[in-house]
Amino acid sequence: TACFEDGAKGAACILPEDGLEFPHGPVSPVRMWRDTPEEKAKRIAALEHTGPGVWWNPLSWFKTETPEEKRKRIETAASEVPPRGVEAQWTVRASRPGVYTLTVCHEGEAHRVKLPVGASGVFPPDVQTFIRLESPSGDRMQMLAFTLKDSMPPSWWNLHLQWIGVYLIVAIASGFGLRPVLGVK
Q1: What does the pLDDT read at residue 137?
Q2: pLDDT tens string 71-116
Q3: Which of 62, 70, 94, 150 could tie 117 with a disulfide, CB 3.0–4.6 Å?
Q4: What is the DSSP letter of 120?
Q5: Under 8 Å CB-to-CB from 54, ≥6 apart: which residues?
Q6: Which residues are 98's β-sheet partners?
Q7: What pLDDT band is residue 44 in, cutting at 50, 70 and 90?
Q8: Do 88 and 29 meet the contact criterion of CB atoms below 8 Å apart?
Q9: φ and ψ at 104, to 5 degrees?
Q10: Mean pLDDT, the chain, as a whole number?
Q11: Helices (H), the chain
């Protein structure tokens, strides 16, 4: 994702490099970001605390609101998230491991970012690469941001913990399982 100042218009592109694929094409319109229905549903679902993970909020143990009130509260919280601003978005896939150079172009400017790709043992790219805070014209690229696909899809038990959640569950189960073997009371 390339983030721009509010006055930016037109299109931005990534110069193709051998080994990189763009499922939706290397050119993306520079426009105000809008929620798709799927993204809005994900954001609302993340705000809704249901399932066994609500144990840390004792007030949620007692049903004090009707389902209609709960739906309104969640939709209100989801609508209060501020807009992300003017963006251009791409999906980039690498066909083989290596270090690639992404060259993002907009309005005659080109910005290069190194993108290491590997099956394992490779450091991920910097989450954000800042280019400038503001420009005199107010229509330039400010930042490049990378969002990597999660290796484990979120669920009620690992919403915030991801792989550490698996570790904690296995560690606790192993501890209780080995307790009689080790003679711990």
Answers
A1: 87
A2: 787 777 666 665 678 899 888 888 888 888 889 999 889 998 888 8
A3: 94
A4: S
A5: 60, 61
A6: 117
A7: low
A8: yes
A9: -100, 125
A10: 78
A11: 37-47, 67-79, 163-182
What's the DSSP call for residue 83? P
Q: What is the mean pLDDT of residues 26-35?
A: 86
| Cβ 85 vs Cβ 103: under 8 Å | no
Based on its alpha-carbon atoms, the radius of gyration of the chain, rounded to whole angstroms, reads 22
**Tokens in use for 154?**
């979120």
Burial state string for 119-157 with b = 16 or more CB within 10 A and e = fewer than 16:
eeeeeebeeebebeeebeeebbbbbbbeeeeeeeeeeee
Nearest to 163 by CA among 174, 154, 176: 154
Please say whether the beta carbons of 30 and 88 come within 8 A: yes
